[in-house]
Write a structure and sequence with these properties.
elongated
Length: 66
C-alpha cells in the first residue's frame, strides 16, 4: 500500500513541476509557480526519506514489511 502512495506522490511531484513551468511561462503567476516548486521539493524529499537506504543498507520502507 505504501508503495502505491509513494508512486502517486512521485506522479504528483512531476505534475506540480510541469504545472509550475506552465505558470512561469504564462506570466503573472510567479508566486504560485514558486509555491508549486516548493511543494514538489517537499514531496520529493518525503519519497527520498522513505526509499533511500540508511548506512545499514536498508530503506525505511523495507523495515515496515518486517
Amino acid at each position: 500500500m505504501l508503495a502505491t502512495v509513494l508512486s502517486i506522490l512521485v506522479l504528483a511531484t512531476i505534475a506540480l513541476l510541469i504545472g509550475a513551468v506552465y505558470l512561469w511561462r504564462k506570466g503573472g503567476h510567479g508566486k504560485q509557480a514558486a509555491l508549486m516548486v516548493l511543494l514538489a521539493a517537499i514531496a520529493a524529499t518525503n519519497v527520498a526519506i522513505w526509499t533511500v537506504p540508511t548506512s545499514e543498507g536498508t530503506a525505511p520502507i523495507d523495515e515496515l514489511s518486517r
